[in-house]
């Protein structure tokens, strides 16, 4: 099973490859929130297009999409948790 783990920063994740043989660092704050990954596919194929100003989900590698999904899951869980907590006076 693939998963992403939060690193020391809120928007930095380590995401396993699809086959689980490698870990890739994803920083979702790079490229003004588009995200960047150190996998070969992103570095060689996608990042040059982003440098030229193109943006969009089609220019996010698997690892960036996984990290964004994990971030969304974490945010949703925190919101639900905060809404179900008893008010403190």
Describe this structure in words.
The protein is of the alpha+beta class. It has one domain (4-84). 39% of the residues lie in helices and 17% in strands. It is built from two helices and four strands. The chain has a four-stranded antiparallel β-sheet with strand order 1-2-3-4. β3 and β4 form a beta hairpin. The longest helix has 23 residues, at 62-84. The radius of gyration is 15 Å and the shape is elongated. The protein starts with a strand and ends in a 5-residue tail after the last helix. The relative contact order is 0.17.
Summarize the structure.
The protein contains 2 helices and 4 strands. The protein has 89 residues and is of the alpha+beta class.
Task: Count the E strands.
Answer: 4
Give the class from helix and strand content and strand pairing: alpha+beta
| N-to-C series of helices and strands | EEEEHH
**Overall pLDDT confidence:** 88
- What is the total domain count? 1
Instruction: Please outline the major beta sheet.
Output: 4 strands, antiparallel
Any idea what the radius of gyration is? 15 Å
Strand content: 15-25%
Q: What's the overall geometry?
A: elongated
Secondary structure: helix percent: 25-40%
Q: How many individual helices?
A: 2
Termini Cα gap: 43 Å
Ranges where pLDDT stays below 50 over 5 or more residues in a row are none
Numbering strands along the chain, what is their spatial order in the largest sheet? 1-2-3-4
């Amino acid at each position: 099973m693939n998963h992403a783990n939060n690193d020391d920063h809120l928007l930095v994740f380590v995401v396993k490859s699809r086959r689980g043989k490698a870990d890739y660092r994803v920083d979702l704050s790079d490229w003004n929130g588009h995200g960047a990954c150190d996998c070969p596919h992103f570095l060689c194929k996608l990042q040059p297009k982003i440098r030229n100003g193109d943006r969009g989900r089609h220019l996010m590698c698997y690892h960036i999409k996984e990290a964004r999904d994990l971030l969304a899951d974490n945010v949703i869980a925190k919101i639900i948790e905060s809404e179900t907590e008893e008010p403190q006076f």
